[in-house]
Amino acid sequence: RMETDCNPMELPDNTGFEEDSDYTDFEGTEVKDMRLEAEAVVNDVLFAVSNMFVSKTLPCAEDVAYINVETRERNRYCLELTEAGLRVVAYDFDKTDDRLQTPYHETVYSLLDSLSPAYREVFGNALLQRLEALKKESQS
């Protein structure tokens, strides 16, 4: 588990450090319930996997949330999302296996990239299409 210099629970809501704060997550929003962060992760990459949703049976808290993902290869994983990042905690939905010692990934992109060649292909194609669209826009 990654150590942090402060406990988000100890921070007042109006710290005034909106932009440059050490107390903000990597997207620049104040640290809040991890469930909201998990929903954002799901919305970001849902197009590139078969199924993905925040677990409704495993407990979400301010510091942890669980995401179920099924890759296009039909492999199922339960992911743990914490301030340390994302990691696989089980090879099925809504489960955790304490014996699994999987590495943390800073982003959902790098985690899925390591798990699913089909994700990598779909995500890469989407990126190429977006770049082509931007190129056309800049030429018109």
UniProtKB/TrEMBL annotation:
PANTHER family: GSK3B-INTERACTING PROTEIN. This is GSKIP protein. InterPro entries: GSKIP, GSKIP_dom, GSKIP_dom_sf. The gene is Gskip. Belongs to the GSKIP family. SUPFAM superfamilies: Hypothetical protein c14orf129, hspc210. GO terms for biological process: regulation of canonical Wnt signaling pathway. Residues 34-134 form the GSKIP domain. Residues 1-21 are annotated as: Disordered. GO terms for cellular component: cytoplasm. Transmembrane segments: none annotated. One of its GO terms (molecular function) is kinase regulator activity. It comes from Campylorhamphus procurvoides.
